[in-house]
Design a protein that fits this description.
The complex is a heterodimer of chains A (431) and B (314). With 431 residues, chain A is α/β, with parallel strands linked by helices. Chain A has 19 helices and 14 strands. In chain A, 45% of the residues lie in helices and 13% in strands. In chain A, α2 links the parallel β1 (32-37) and β2 (60-64). Chain A starts with a helix and ends with a helix. Chain B has 314 residues and is an all-alpha fold. Chain B has a single domain (81-309), classed as MetI-like fold. A two-stranded antiparallel sheet of chain B has the order 1-2. In chain B, α2 crosses α15 (281-309), α3 crosses α15 (281-309) and α12 packs antiparallel against α15. The longest helix of chain B is centred in the first third of the chain and has 35 residues, at 21-55. Chain B is globular. The two termini of chain B are 39 Å apart. The chains are: A alpha/beta (431), B mainly alpha (314). Chain A binds chain B through residues 69-70, 72-73, 76-77, 92, 95, 99-101, 195-196, 242, 245-250, 252-253, 255, 320, 391-392, 394-395, 398-399, 402-403, 406-407, and chain B through 61-64, 139, 142-143, 146-150, 165-169, 253-262, 272-273, 275-279.
């Protein structure tokens, strides 16, 4: 009996000490913070960057990168998420917020004294929902036209003059495409969806998008959408979609290799991001490549749409279940500071989201990279409007785009069907 | 009789039979060894199954209580074109992929069972691909099936056949995946080989003496004698194919899931998309239970039908 009482007493002491420990008004400063990053080819470099935070504050930061896509949701739902989660794109942030999985960041911005004026408008706007801030952009990507100067020269075109309009781009593409006698294609002038689709850019060039400006209505069947798909379709149907696919199948998988068609003289023009101009891609795989980069041209009838580009890229969120939100906010503020943004994105050759960081010679000394920096400051820089159904809509749009481009299908009825399917879903999701 | 019934009555805690001390100790040690598995089973199999069953009748919210919707998820499935598309793609793999793979592995096993020089080396060569990780083999096959530079179309070109756009043509993407699956059929071959070792030689010799040729011996003796192995391989193959995921996930390359034109959107891929990309956990759970029922029905049907073609010696 005495022994039983003794154990009861010990249990009581243990439980009451645990309760007392958890009842404090202010959580004690953590000794360890965790940052999980969805991307990251070089996790060691990212860890070294965050070690600087440890040196400044004494708080250890543990980086996990890259994080697989299917781990993100369990991570956010679980009771022990990281203190900061960095996502490859902002397209699911609104869905996560809708489900209560990520924190609204207004108070974190105040706590961390984050200067929102230092952010470029387009990447920051992708994180906003009304007056709410759901994420903060941490480096970003933009897309422009790349052209192979040697191939231009061989086709009798001025190697230093890229197409000025979308119509001229199609003309150039035709001159640059070589079709063999047996119908197979030797080289392509332009592939609109090389590596992945760029309908978001083309549809902006035609003056629209698949949502209205505030993301409350779906406009998938609008004329700009039809025009954007029809314009892309010609680059397949003009030469036979099967022949184009036979040549280009596997190109995307050669993206990080010297066999990439843009280097091997198989593809003369395509749309790609700023990182290609950095040290890890063209310079690494084909240092002698003679190429140019320019903003994607507008339609001839709309020169005011020149310098239109779409921002897509990394965003940081604080999970709703994060243990110590003040500590997360301070770390987030440190991540967003111009010096850290400059260091990280100079290393990765991605666009800095901080205006101060963008003045670093690392970003301005390379004229090809500067094309993208200038594009981000352009008043025509756009962000992708997202809603809670964005992810599902993308997954439906991808095969639709394939069907139009690769089989020559009429985009209008397909877009009508898409509109009919997703309009009620958006309505439901926004309730 | 009455006394027996009383004795059989359930009682809690159950009374252990009157064992000797040693037996009791052995029993407890045995239970202790079983404990990790039991906890694992309860936490990681039974609990998720029960939870997914409940989720399948509700709309799942990560941070809010479940919203009970009755059969809405199940009804929604039957109205969902992508559900039917994914089911069709999966059934295609089951109906075409499994028999072709079984047939090919049986003939490979028969060849590898021939007493020829270097038999062990041939067996190793055929088995090796099955231990290559799925992701690695899928990436390798992306290159093999490249329509312009891939080795398969190059070989077909030598015999005057223009190979198709394996991975960008919806008509050829699934056959491409079946080829990839056949490359890794080493474990099925090994199981067949073990069955072939058990085919009684006296039967084969007797048939040979009676003038039966190779094909007749194979068809009338070997095939019936390995029919239990065929049934085993068939059922495991069907179950595996119904859950086809990893290869399709990797095989899309840098394109969206289901590329091209949703022709590789298999049931598990669509389930994954619903659960982890679109946060529709309730809908995905309903899909999981429908798949469970489909697999169960198929397995029971196969077992029933197999009574006609399976021969259990002795």
């Amino acid at each position: 009996m005495k022994r039983k009482n003794f154990w009861l007493f010990v249990s009581f002491l243990l439980i009451s000490s645990m309760l007392l420990a958890s009842c404090g008004n202010k959580p004690a400063a953590p000794s360890l913070l965790r940052v999980w990053i969805q991307w990251g080819d070089n996790p060691q470099q990212i860890q070294t960057l965050f070690d600087k935070y440890t040196a400044e504050t004494g708080i250890k930061v543990e980086v996990t990168a890259p994080l697989e896509e299917d781990k993100i949701l369990p991570t956010l739902i679980g009771s022990d998420p990281p203190d900061i989660l960095v996502l490859s794109g902002g397209d699911r942030v609104k869905s996560y917020f809708h489900e209560g999985l990520v924190e609204e960041l207004s108070s974190a911005v105040k706590t961390g004294k984050i200067d929102l004026n230092d952010f470029f408008a387009a990447p920051l706007d992708q994180c906003k929902m009304g007056d709410k801030i759901l994420c903060l952009p941490w480096g970003t990507d933009m897309y422009a036209l790349f052209w192979n100067k040697d191939m231009f020269e061989a086709a009798g075109l001025d190697p230093n003059t890229p197409p000025a309009t979308m119509e001229q781009l199609a003309e150039f593409a035709d001159k640059l495409t070589k079709v063999n006698a047996d119908g197979t294609i030797e080289q392509l002038g332009f592939l609109p969806d090389q590596a992945w689709g760029h309908s978001d850019l083309y549809v902006h060039m035609f003056g629209g998008f698949w949502y209205n400006d505030d993301g409350t209505q779906l406009t998938a069947n609008s004329q700009p959408m039809i025009d954007a798909l029809t314009w892309q379709q010609q680059f397949y149907t003009n030469y036979g979609a099967d022949a184009v696919l036979a040549l280009s199948s596997g190109w995307a998988d050669a993206y990080m290799s010297p066999d990439y068609p843009f280097y091997t003289g198989k593809l003369a023009m395509y749309v790609d991001g700023e990182w290609m101009t950095g040290p890890n891609f063209i310079s690494a795989f084909k240092p002698e490549a003679s190429y140019g980069v320019a903003p994607f041209p507008p339609p001839a009838a709309h020169p005011e749409r020149a310098n239109t580009a779409v921002v897509q890229g990394t965003v940081a969120v604080i999970p709703a279940n994060a243990a110590n939100k003040d500590a997360s906010a301070k770390l987030l503020a440190w991540m967003m500071s111009p010096a850290i943004v400059a260091e990280e994105f100079c290393f990765n050759a991605n666009l800095p989201t901080s205006k101060i960081a963008a003045q670093d010679p690392c970003f301005t000394s390379n004229p090809k990279f500067k094309v993208f920096v200038d594009l981000m400051a352009s008043p025509n820089a756009k962000y992708i409007i997202t809603t809670p159904i964005t992810s599902e809509l993308y997954d439906a749009m991808t095969p639709l785009e394939e069907e139009v481009l690769h089989t020559g299908a009429d985009p209008k009825p397909l877009l009508e069907a898409l509109q009919a399917e997703f309009e009620p879903k958006l309505e439901e999701a926004l309730k | 009789m009455e006394e027996l019934r009383v004795k059989r009555k359930w009682a809690w805690p159950p009374r252990l039979p009157k064992w000797r001390y040693r037996e009791r100790v052995n029993f407890r040690i045995g239970m202790l060894f079983l404990l990790p598995w039991t906890i694992g089973f309860l936490a990681f199999t039974l609990y998720p199954m029960v939870a997914s069953f409940i989720y399948s009748f509700s709309i799942y919210h990560a941070r809010a209580p479940l919203e009970w919707v009755g059969l809405q998820n199940y009804i929604g499935l039957f109205k969902d074109d992508l559900f039917w598309k994914s089911l069709f793609n999966t059934l295609y793999m089951v109906a075409i992929g499994v028999p072709i793979t079984l047939l090919a592995s049986f003939f490979c096993a028969v060849l590898l069972n021939l007493k020829v020089r270097g038999q062990a080396i041939y067996r190793v060569i055929y088995f090796l691909p099955s231990i290559v990780p799925t992701v690695a083999s899928a990436i390798l096959w992306l290159w093999i099936l490249n329509p312009q530079t891939g080795i398969l179309n190059t070989l077909l070109g030598y015999i005057g056949i223009q190979g198709p756009n394996w991975m960008s043509n919806p008509a050829w993407s699934k056959p491409g995946l079946i080829l990839l699956g056949m490359w890794g059929m080493g474990s099925t071959i090994v199981i067949y080989l073990s069955g072939l070792q058990d085919v009684p030689t006296h039967l084969l010799e007797a048939a040979e003496l009676d003038g039966a040729n190779w094909w007749q011996r194979l068809w009338n003796i070997t095939v019936p004698m390995v029919s239990p192995i065929t049934l085993f391989n068939l059922i495991t193959g069907v179950i595996t194919m119904f859950q086809y995921f990893a290869q399709a996930y990797v095989f899309r390359g840098s394109h969206g899931l289901g590329y091209p034109l949703n022709s590789t959107l298999f049931y598990s891929v669509y389930l994954y998309q619903n659960a982890f990309l679109w946060l529709k956990m309730g809908y995905a759970s309903a899909m999981a239970w429908v798949l469970f029922i489909v697999i169960l029905v198929c397995t029971l049907l196969l077992l029933k039908v197999s009574e006609r073609f399976t021969y259990y010696a002795g």
